[in-house]
Amino acid sequence: MKKTNFDCYLDKQLQDPAFAARFKNAGKAWDVALQISALREKAGLTQQDLAKLLGTSQQQISRLESPGYEGHSLSMLRRVAEVLHARVRVAFEPAETKRSIRVAHTPRVIESNTRQRRGNER
């Protein structure tokens, strides 16, 4: 099948790591939005109905169901899940590339290292 102009454009844009990351994250937001909307509709609720059950506004529900919205809080997602008889599951997965993780030293370790260096300078 021949690629469309958009497919060619998207392939070119995805070569930029920053764009690729944004594109991937947008897909995750889209997934959350679609799940909330599908659960709400399955329960036979309108956005207004769900808002009343959560004690929030219809506009907030609209934002939660918007693919471009990235302000989902875990507490709000839990509230939505409870009302819609679902559960929230968050999973951390390994990144595609392994990077070393650097942990900041605690103040006690830094203080100890500073004393050792000062002792070596004398």
Summarize the entry for a quick read.
This protein is mainly α.
Describe the structure.
This protein has 122 residues and is mainly alpha-helical. The chain has a single domain (5-121), classed as 434 Repressor (Amino-terminal Domain). It is built from six helices and no strands. It has helices at residues 5-13, 17-42, 47-54, 58-64, 74-83, 107-121. Helix 3 packs across helix 4. It starts with a helix and ends with a helix.
What's the alpha carbon Rg, rounded to whole Å? 23 Å
Largest sheet: none
Extended strand count = 0
The secondary-structure class comes to mainly alpha
Strand content: under 5%
Oligomer: single chain
CATH C-level class: Mainly Alpha
Q: CATH topology, what is it called?
A: 434 Repressor (Amino-terminal Domain)
Backbone shape: flat
Q: How would you spell out the order of helices and strands?
A: HHHHHH
- What percentage of residues falls in helices of 4 or more residues? 55-70%
**Can you tell me the CATH architecture?**
Orthogonal Bundle
Our measurement of the CA-to-CA distance between the termini, rounded to an integer number of angstroms, reads 75 Å
Number of domains: 1
* Residue runs with pLDDT of under 50 for 5 or more positions: none
CATH superfamily: lambda repressor-like DNA-binding domains
State mean pLDDT (0 to 100 scale): 80
What's the helix count? 6
Question: Could you list some keywords that capture this structure?
Answer:
about 120 residues; mainly alpha; 434 Repressor (Amino-terminal Domain); 6 helices
